[in-house]
Amino acid sequence: MGPWGALLITTGAVISMTGNNLGGSLTGSRMLFALSEQRDLPAVFSKVHPSWHTPVFAIVFTSLVTWALALFSSFATLALASGVARLLVYAGTCASVLALRRVSRAPFTIAGGPIVPALALALSVAILYGTTTAQLRVGLMFMAAGAVLFFIAPRGKA
After folding, report:
1. Domain that holds residue 83
2. What is the pTM of this model?
3. CA separation (Å) from 47 to 4, 35, 154?
4. Does 64 share its domain with 127?
5. Structurally, how many domains does the chain consist of?
6. Which pLDDT tens digits describe the chain residue by residue (158 residues)?
7. Which of 3, 52, 130, 152 has its CA 20 to 30 A from that of 87?
């Protein structure tokens, strides 16, 4: 398709990446807000702007972290961090399904019973086992940053 095809694909890629980044900004700041409301993160993340009723500090924090990562990191590093983080969240979700089935009074059910989440958890662990040292290092750095925020949060009833 020549130069027009290249322009079309580039335009589509820019639109797609912009949408993904905007979605990530919205969900990232709202996750910080929700975790702060539950007292799992410092209270500053749940401060709401008086006029706009938005979690302004969480939005600014997420935007600054995203901006810094975009400027001072490579695409490969960000992809590694994203992949490991998503895999760990997925594995945690699979493990949670198994735990909820065991302890819930109204059993949490899923088609296939415990087989599906158990297989998904095993697959997640197998994929994690195959990650490189660089992937694990980047993923653990981001997890450590999250753990610091978690441990400095006040505890008690939300």
Report:
1. 74-158
2. 0.63
3. 48, 12, 15
4. no
5. 2
6. 889 999 999 999 889 888 877 787 788 889 899 989 988 888 899 999 999 999 999 999 988 887 887 788 777 777 777 778 788 888 988 998 888 877 776 666 777 878 998 999 999 999 888 888 877 787 788 778 888 888 887 766 65
7. 152
